[in-house]
Amino acid sequence: MKKNSRILLTLCFIFILKISYAGEGMWLPQLLKALNEGDMQSMGMKMSAEDIYSVNQGSLKDAIVHFNGGCTSEIISAEGLLLTNHHCGYGQIQSHSSVKNNLLKNGFWAKSKKEELPNDNLEVTFIVRIEDVSKMVLEGVTDEMSTKERQSQIDKNIASYKQSMRPLKHEEIQIKPFFKGNQYFMFVTMTYTDVRLVGAPPESIGKFGSDTDNWVFPRHTGDFSLFRIYAGADNMPADYSIDNVPFKPKHFLPISLDGVEEGDFTLVFGYPGRTNQYLPSSAVAQTMNVLNPAKIAIRDKALKIVDAGMRSDEAIRIQYASKYARIANYWKKWIGENQGLKKSDAMGRKHKYEQDFMTRLKADRTMHVKYGSLLNDFEKLYKEIEPYALTRDYYNEIVRRNIEIMTVASYMNRLESLYANNGATGYNGFKARLEPFLDDFYKNYRPEIDQKVFASLMEMYVNADIIEGVKGDLAAMAKKHGGFDKYAKSLFESSFVPNKNQMFKLLSADPKMAIESMQKDPLVQLAKQLSDAYDANVSKEYSNLNTKITDLMRIYMEGQMKVFTEKKFFPDANSTMRVTYGKVAGYSPRDAVTYNPVSYLDGAIEKYVPGDYEFDIPKKLLDLYETKDYGQYADSNGKVPICFLGTNHTTGGNSGSPVIDAHGNLIGLNFDRVWEGTMSDINYDASICRNIMVDARYILFIVDKFAGATHLVKEMKLVHPKKDAKVIKMEEPKKKKKRRRRRG
Ligand code: ARG
Ligand code: GLU
Asked: Is 96 buried (19+), middle (13-18) or exposed (0-12) by CB count in 10 A?
């Protein structure tokens, strides 16, 4: 008896532990009321679903803004002040930088609105409303239709629906598939294009820790930047003009000064890009055992070469810093993802899930007929697609990404085919877009580095166990030249493509003559040969098989939702607005290792390496630390918090997402995940998946104390929800008693 109750107690404890970690799910804001409100409130949320998403009144969603299609941002003042990550605003900050006036290095703070810097090619998008349009979109679609028929019916439905809608001026309509095409939602959006840079800390704060600390905790990065949305006099979107005025939002986020503690409710609201939560085990196995290792190995080689170059020469370091960061970001992510998939026993979990799926199907004949063979079909299809998928990754990573010159060479072929098809108009149109790109490209390009990458990766390509046909005559050419190094040297020396002057000279020539020279160029020829070989041997087969898989995936998704009726499903991320909720929590990735959920300025000081490009700290910040001049931004322990961890289910695209407390105030800014948990894109595991956020108080501290941009802090609304709640609690019992008496 005693033993039994102890077991029961342990089970209860495990259950409670599980619940208190809950964080899985990227939920649709308009469905929170039906699916999540109760759960969220039981985790400590004091708001209603209507406070988060409402069509009829200002709600949190009106403060959440898609930032240039990739990141998230949020409004934090009545005058359209916009907060996002430093790495999201990086391109804009860089574009205003020069050697003389290096905003990346020194930071930037507009002292008044007049000094705010306009940006080309930057837009931010609001959601006006979201509607389920599945019925309309799937009208007339039947199970008997082929994929093509189905898609064409859907396209027709969407087109006629869009025509019937009369969006207001400035509104746009987008219809997107969810649950692998089982549901469709319409998004009415509004996009502003006059968005100006207001402030950014120096990189030694905004990118502190750089690649070494990327995807890692403890983290000490102040990864934020500030922009402002401008509108026409009517508060509507308008092209840039000095007459534009600061945008007046329907809602902006107040900022809490009360900080976070382990267990506090956290809501992350933003635009996650892409996840794959519902894959069959055969797909997960392929990602884990075949595709990820190949991509990691390729980038490993490329990164080592670039790194050696960057270490040998300061100018190269600057030229390659951003490119290196981009390549290293996902290289490191995939390594973490693979480790996490193993550690979380993703395969074991998927197998168990699939067994359950099959067992339940057996109880229902019609369902079994419809879904019973899916898993076997996947197994077969994934086997079939594997060589194509692997070759595709090799081609993309080697020919299209990591050897820089191959991309540029392929543009020459594009010019050629545009000329052949559309004459000088086609040629000149593309050339006009190409020239500014090339100007930028050569600024940060070193042929001597790329030549080494070429030699190393092309050798890998030739030796890889992939579809032979894609390799062209690379092997023979290398042999003829006496190895890949010599082959690369000869190519880079004889081609005009690596040379900026020769390139621009050629582009200024008459199209016909230019094309003749291009056609003779060995690198341009090679790019064409490899691209043709890929098209002939892989493209079509891959896309055919992939279409079959996509189709099955839609049916499998439908099956999962019909079979596991007790489970609440959320759709995979697809760059649409989502809410994820969780709690502030540390984690323990390995035996004897436990991370606290909050990091402090003290930890940045521990990492400080004077003059280092990753771990330098500005003098002013060191001074503030010395004198403990923290103003109202310190934690109750007297230290300045920098980052904290939560159980929110996030992914790429959630960068810049606001972290919101139980009452709707901003407490942080999402910017990363922990390495051990990056497999959450495929297999979320509440025990080790954590998102990383900058504490809002650190942002305020940097803006106010470090930068002296106090006018910006004054523009914000700072609040004390925890302190206020205590005051209310003390007053509350009286009120409650009164009410009860009245009712009784
Ligand atoms: N890992 C984060 C993300 O996926 C941050 C990337 C930017 N920072 C960097 N050191 N590369 O985007
Ligand atoms: N840094 C990522 C981004 O730019 C977010 C981190 C993640 O993948 O969770 O979107």
From this structure: middle
